[in-house]
């Protein structure tokens, strides 16, 4: 037995996942019985539990992160929900090849849809499956000997072919122990199958012909033929790499074709410097002025060549993100997590340095560090060549060539485009052609000359003039000619002038109120079509930061927007937006505000407490700002959390703040204890007042029909939740770390749009009692609620996907209605007093992760039969647990099983070992 455990531990420690897929097969389990577990857990129980809750790994405390983040920003629905849809005959391959393929694709980070075994009982495919096909980028069709006998498979294939013809769905056929020509011509067992169907009175001839046509079409597509003459594991890896490569190439094509004009010669020059064939580690800095195309060039190299490396990571907007996360640990976490294909926990910058310098030494990696502007960033993310394995390449984009020179980084300067390429780029943006029409040729050349070869200016300018009459072109050209000292901002402003008012408003909001949280919440305030127009005109773009979508804007465009606002009036109080702290204090101290002001951001720069210099402020200064929409006091600069305690107010600011048009209010450490009854912000969409002195929001129900997010995390004086029935559209609520909060208002039970509820580290004893109607609730955090004595009835929240009861040290029972949570994926009950999870088999078909670590009273495992899709189970430090339930062998998808520091003497029986090694 010891040999088995040791062998599995060594395999897991070496990370030979491909070997596990090939040898262990359907389970692919990583057993952590002390060998690895000792690395994950400290000797202290409290330390174990604490480490599990270090989620964002920044320099601020765990509680701060809970409150500030509220939760992960919700991404908008992507065009493709799945990367791959698997079509297969369960009778032939479900527990063999298909399962191996599924496990490997998933391990590589590819999103795979595989139907539930229970779904294949019928003959007509469900609406769910049809939708899954339509939302997939690839369909892998595994033809096996019984595939054609299944009407289910045939109808699935017909839908795949139909959708391939309608949309950009790519089909990859796998001929599993069948001849491709037999598929094309429906011979052999396929002929038998079709003959049987055609005799079936339930199948009409038209449907049968559709199936045959689908078979013929897919049979002619080049795929993989598996006939037993080679190992299957390399074939699975090839399929995975093909999908990943095509995915990256697709991202190149998704990049507007205008953006890659003249790129090939530059890529060639960079490849010469990178010398990809060399086995040494090379750093390269791509530098040049803003808007010249450094990031686009780095993106093209990344997408074209990352498939040649064992791991890759693209970290964008480093300069901007470093101002909000000064310790850089989140950037280190993102880089490592992307390369290692799993979430890496990093406590702080120094731990990040240690992990960065050790975890990648044996990996050939490609890393892009975009917009680096200081040595600390280089030290944190690419401190030395010996951090990375042989053949690795690290590319950084930078405006400061001296920074690269000081750090002895080889350099490549990006020059502006030559006239020919510049004209082509402009023409593609303006006319969707490589050359302008004859009557626009001279005008186009004028604009090209003004843009000075900068791709950003050429693209934005061309898009702003696209489909506009020639008179508009001439007017724009004449305006530029009238100013012989035209600067890049004047050129870019032409695109701004052509926007509608709502589009201008969004543009200036993004330009002036930078910061990830603001970006995320713009999507709650503005309609999707307004955002899409700015994206289409290259004035905004979408970016993914560690799998979280946000809106971004180029620095030149951002500065142009701020210059537009500054030019509105010399007196800051007469401008539409206040975004510099000195301007904000000037207006508040001197009471110079007017109804021109629509937004205020008060956010201190790094490295100093500035609030102490401004004395007492009269909040009556707000009263003149009758068009105020956005108020944002303090961003994510953690080191300055306590600047706000030095600002003294002579009254309650909300008593004077006009509320009619207010949509976004975030006030960190709001100074007053009460919410004035006169403050009725009926248009409010987001309300965030973390770490405030508030004891109670409103005494009676407040009518807030548009409110979607409420965050009062860390308000230690908050003693009760106000009536929320007047805010029926709330989607996210955060009361985490409200340490005096002991009751939940019953109005929370009927918030039908509520998706996330965070009550972490409060004093509540009971969440709700009786019936609730929360059909959209997906995420519930009750971690560290040490007075919580019982679970609620889950019947009214059937769509929960994630529940956290960790460190609820008074909780000893699981409510039986948990079986109603068919969509539950993550359940964390670590460090609770439960003795038994459930007595009989529970039907939890989507449960993937179960954490029961440090449940010292847990005496037995549950029956696993009803949770067949579990992938990760943690029983570490369950010191009363001594037996493994035999139904564990039914967990075909289990990948990680942690049972360190339990009383178990035998992990599995001989029959279970044979199951593992199928």
UniProtKB/TrEMBL annotation:
Organism name: Carya illinoinensis
InterPro entries per record: Disease_R_plants, Leu-rich_rpt_3, NB-ARC, TIR_dom, WHD_ROQ1-like
Name assigned to this protein: TIR domain-containing protein
Positions of the UniProt region annotated as Disordered: 44-79
Domain of life assignment: Eukaryota
SMART domains found in the cross-reference section: TIR
TIR domain: residues covered: 80-247
Keyword annotations from UniProtKB, A to Z: Leucine-rich repeat, Membrane, NAD, Repeat, Transmembrane, Transmembrane helix
Transmembrane segments: 7-37
GO terms for MF: ADP binding
Keyword Nucleus part of the UniProt annotation: no
Record-level GO BP terms: defense response; signal transduction
């Amino acid at each position: 037995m010891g040999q088995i455990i040791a062998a599995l531990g060594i395999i897991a420690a070496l990370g030979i996942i491909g070997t596990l897929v090939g040898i262990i097969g359907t389970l692919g389990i990583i057993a952590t019985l002390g060998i690895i577990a000792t690395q994950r857990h400290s000797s202290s129980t409290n330390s174990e539990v604490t480490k599990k809750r270090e989620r964002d790994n920044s320099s601020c405390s765990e509680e701060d992160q809970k409150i500030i983040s509220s939760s992960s920003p919700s991404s908008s629905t992507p065009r493709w929900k799945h990367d791959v849809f698997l079509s297969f005959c369960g009778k032939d391959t479900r527990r063999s090849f298909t399962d191996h393929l599924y496990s490997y694709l998933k391990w590589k980070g590819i999103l795979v849809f595989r139907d539930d075994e229970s779904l294949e009982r019928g003959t007509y495919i469900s609406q769910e499956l049809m939708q899954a096909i339509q939302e997939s980028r690839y369909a892998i069709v595994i033809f096996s000997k019984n595939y054609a006998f299944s009407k289910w498979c045939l109808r699935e294939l017909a839908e795949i072919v139909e959708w391939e013809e309608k949309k950009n769905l790519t089909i990859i056929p796998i001929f599993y122990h069948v001849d491709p020509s037999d598929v094309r011509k429906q011979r052999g067992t396929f002929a038998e199958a079709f003959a049987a169907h055609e005799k079936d009175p339930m199948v009409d001839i038209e449907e049968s012909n559709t199936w045959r046509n689908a078979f013929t079409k897919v049979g002619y597509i080049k795929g993989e033929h598996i006939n037993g003459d080679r190992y299957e594991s390399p074939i699975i890896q090839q399929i995975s790499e093909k999908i990943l490569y095509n995915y990256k190439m697709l991202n190149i094509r998704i990049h507007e074709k205008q953006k890659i004009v003249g790129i090939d010669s530059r890529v060639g020059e960079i490849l010469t410097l990178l010398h990809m064939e060399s086995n040494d580690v090379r750093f390269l800095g791509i530098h040049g002025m803003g808007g010249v195309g450094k990031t686009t060039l780095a993106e093209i190299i990344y997408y074209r060549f990352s498939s040649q490396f064992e791991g890759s990571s693209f970290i964008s907007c480093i300069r901007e993100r470093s101002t909000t996360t000064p310790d850089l640990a989140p950037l280190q976490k993102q880089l490592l997590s992307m390369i290692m294909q799993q979430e890496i926990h990093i406590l702080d910058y120094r731990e990040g340095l240690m992990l960065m310098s050790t975890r990648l030494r044996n990996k050939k990696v490609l890393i892009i560090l975009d917009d680096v502007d200081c040595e600390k960033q280089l030290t944190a993310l690419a401190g030395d060549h010996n951090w990375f394995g042989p053949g690795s390449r690290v590319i950084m984009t930078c405006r400061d060539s001296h920074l690269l020179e000081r750090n002895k980084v080889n350099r490549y300067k990006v020059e502006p485009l030559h006239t020919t390429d510049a004209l082509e780029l402009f023409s593609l943006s303006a006319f969707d052609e490589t050359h302008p029409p004859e009557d626009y040729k001279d005008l186009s050349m004028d604009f090209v000359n003004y843009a000075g070869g900068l791709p950003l200016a050429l693209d934005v300018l061309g898009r702003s003039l696209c489909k506009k009459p020639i008179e508009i072109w001439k007017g724009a050209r004449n305006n530029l000619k009238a100013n012989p000292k035209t600067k890049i901002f004047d050129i870019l402003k032409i695109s701004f002038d052509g926007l509608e008012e709502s589009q201008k408003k969004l543009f200036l909001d993004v330009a002036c109120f930078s910061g990830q949280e603001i970006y995320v919440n713009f999507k709650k305030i503005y309609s999707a079509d307004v955002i899409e127009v700015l994206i289409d005109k290259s004035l905004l773009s979408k970016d993914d930061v560690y799998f979280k979508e946000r809106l971004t804007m180029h620095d030149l465009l951002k500065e142009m927007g701020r210059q537009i606002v500054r030019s509105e009036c010399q007196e800051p109080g007469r401008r539409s937006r206040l975004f510099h702290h000195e301007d904000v204090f000037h207006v508040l101290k001197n009471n110079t505000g007017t109804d021109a002001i629509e937004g205020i951001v008060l956010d201190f720069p790094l490295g100093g407490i500035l609030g102490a210099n401004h004395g007492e402020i009269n909040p009556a200064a707000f009263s003149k700002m009758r068009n105020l929409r956005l108020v944002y006091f303090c961003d994510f600069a953690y080191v300055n959390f306590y600047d706000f305690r030095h600002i003294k107010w002579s009254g309650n600011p909300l008593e004077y703040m006009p509320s009619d048009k207010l949509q976004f209010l975030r006030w960190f450490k709001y100074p007053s204890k009460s919410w004035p009854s006169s403050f009725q912000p009926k248009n409010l969409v987001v309300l965030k007042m973390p770490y405030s002195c508030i004891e109670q929001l409103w005494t009676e129900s407040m009518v807030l029909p548009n409110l979607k997010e409420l965050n009062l995390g860390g308000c230690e004086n908050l003693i009760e939740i106000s009536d929320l029935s007047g805010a029926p559209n709330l989607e996210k609520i955060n009361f985490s770390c409200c340490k005096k909060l002991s009751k939940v208002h019953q109005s929370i039970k009927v918030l039908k749009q509520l998706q996330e509820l965070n009550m972490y580290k409060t004093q509540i004893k009971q969440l709700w009692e009786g019936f609730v109607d929360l059909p959209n609730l997906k995420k519930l955090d009750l971690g560290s609620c040490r007075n919580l004595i019982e679970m609620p009835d889950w019947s009214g929240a059937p769509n929960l996907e994630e529940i956290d009861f960790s460190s609820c040290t008074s909780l000893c029972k699981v409510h039986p209605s948990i079986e109603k949570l068919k969509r539950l994926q993550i359940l964390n009950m670590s460090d609770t007093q439960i003795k038994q999870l459930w007595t009989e088999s529970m039907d939890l078909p989507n449960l993937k992760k179960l954490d029961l670590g440090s449940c010292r009273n847990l005496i037995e495992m549950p029956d696993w039969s009803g949770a067949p899709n579990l992938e990760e189970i943690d029983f570490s430090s369950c010191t009363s647990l001594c037996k493994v339930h035999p139904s564990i062998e039914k967990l075909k998808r289990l990948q990680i099983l942690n049972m360190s520091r339990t009383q178990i003497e035998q992990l599995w029986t001989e029959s279970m070992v044979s199951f593992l090694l199928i």
